[in-house]
Amino acid sequence: MANAREIKDRIKSVKDTKKIASAMYLISSTKMRKAKAALDGTRPYFSALRLEIGRIFGYFENIESRYFYAKDYKSAIDKPDACLVITADKGLSGAYNQNVIKETQKLLSINKDTKLFVVGEYGRQYFLRHNIPIEQSFIYTAQNPTMQRAREICRTLLDLYESGTADEIYVVYTDLQKDINQSVQTVRLLPLERKYFTDYSSADKAGYEFWPDAKKVLHSIVPAFLTGFIYSALVDSFCSEQNARMIAMSNASDNADEIIERLSLQYNRLRQADITRQITEVSSGAKAQARKRKARAQRNEQRHNS
Fold it and tell me: Is residue 203 classed as helix, strand or coil in its secondary structure?
């Protein structure tokens, strides 16, 4: 059994760990709030793009585009040719990274030759350790999602699609929902499905002209829309990571409190036992001294009487 000093040192160590966990919680909370504010600032623009795409389909129901499936297409994961995987740069965020990896492995089980495009150091290291080839790794950090980085990723994936190298491109990311729950999403990035824009295709049809024509307008809008989707996926993943880390750090702080309480109780018991032992030793010593004095007094009395 550990002595009182060892227990006291461990209590101090756990308290220091709790301070670190609390600091990480506050940092993640601040990062998530800033990222969500940046995303909310861009949503109106990309919502407007989605509205315009829906309006074009509302005007021209049979319009064809290389970026879209045919009108009667039924949604299904067929044979993914490429996949953008968004992970974090580090751990300490619960099962956040593991859930993204599991979802990616499902796509790889459908097509083991799926080209992987990875954001986040955790995903890069995982695929390298398991000898899973990566087509391209976006080496900048996942900790700072920006519109410029979303454009770079979108351009890379569009080049792959337009060259015919990939017929279907997916993105695996973590969506942070309004109730702070998070779930890993697998979304087909290209080709797009028309039904995704059906809520907007009923927009008013009064007096709009498309120049030079609707098809070219559609083709110029779609890359910008895809950039917005990728940016949203980057920010959602980043916010989900911070939320997962906040939960993990909160649990760590709660566990630290339980450990400190248990160790404090153990420390107090040892201290109480030590105090009891010291009192017993003092009492025993006092009794021994009393008996010794009594015996000496008796011997002196016997000598005096004799």
Answer: coil
Per-domain residue ranges of the chain: 28-250
Residue 47: the pLDDT is 80
What is the predicted pLDDT for the residue at 272? 85
The answer for residues whose C-beta is within 8 angstroms of residue 166's C-beta and 6 or more apart is 81, 82, 115, 157, 160, 190
Structure tokens at 169: 């491109």
Q: Are the beta carbons of 67 and 192 closer than 8 angstroms?
A: yes
d(CA 225, CA 233): 12
The CATH H-level (homologous superfamily) assignment of domain 28-250 is: ATP synthase, F1 complex, gamma subunit (3.40.1380.10)
CB 152 within 8 A of CB 226: no
Please provide residue 178's backbone torsions phi and psi, each rounded to the nearest 5 degrees. Answer: -65, -30
Q: 3-class SS at 113?
A: coil
Torsions phi, psi for 175 (to 5 deg): -100, 125
What pLDDT is attached to residue 215?
81
pLDDT tens per residue across span 26-67: 888 898 888 878 777 777 888 888 888 887 877 777 788 888
Question: Which residue type is seen at 174?
Answer: T
Question: What six digits make up the tokens of 39?
Answer: 């995303």
pTM of the model: 0.79
- Confidence at 164, pLDDT banded by 50, 70, 90: confident
